[in-house]
Amino acid sequence: MRDEVRAALDVFAALKPGEIPFNTASVRKMFDVVEAASHEDLDLLIADLSQGLADPDVWRAACAAISCGTLVENGASPAIVALPLLERMIVAARQLSGIDAITTDTFAGKVLDAVDNMERRSELVHPCGLLAAR
Fold it and tell me: Torsions phi, psi of 16, nearest 5?
């Protein structure tokens, strides 16, 4: 794991609810690396950063998710973060009352199909993969 990502994840791990980490030196340094990174490096960075999505604290995981979104906007593959994000969403959905395992499993299957299709596309019109391939 790159030092810049590790330092940003450490900042996220120390957050209290509502604290904003994005102007801290460690997180800014990570974003500075992102701005100069190649697509290949961005993919490695987002793979490391997506580990923060597993944080049990909703706010800290949200900060990691926002940061992953920034990497996608800069050219990282959204498919790399899709599965960790899906895992996080399934855990959260199962904690909500009134949502059963069948519903969350059906949702997960549909998202996995979308991720599979995203990975098969040779060219994405939009970095988030939400638009059809050309």
Answer: -100, 155
